[in-house]
Write a structure and sequence with these properties.
The protein is mostly beta strands. It has one domain. The protein has a five-stranded antiparallel beta sheet with strand order 4-3-2-1-5. The protein is globular and about 30 Å long.
């Protein structure tokens, strides 16, 4: 599911074409992402984030 809403912790987002990660934290309005097996990093431009699956959708799919 693609959604125009703002990402929340636990959501899977696309941060670059074909590149996905999970929002792990939001600190002072700054988003932090993590991919499997990597450390988290701050997002340079949060306007580029597109929610692909919400945390609830990931749970329902058994991915969390």
């Amino acid at each position: 599911m693609v959604s125009p809403r703002q990402p929340e912790v636990g959501d899977e987002v696309e941060y670059a074409p074909g590149r996905r990660a999970v929002v792990t934290d939001i600190r002072r309005g700054n988003y932090y992402l993590r991919t499997w097996g990597n450390q988290e990093w701050p997002v340079q431009d949060s306007d580029q984030l597109t929610v692909k699956r919400t945390r609830a959708e990931r749970i329902a799919a058994g991915d969390l």
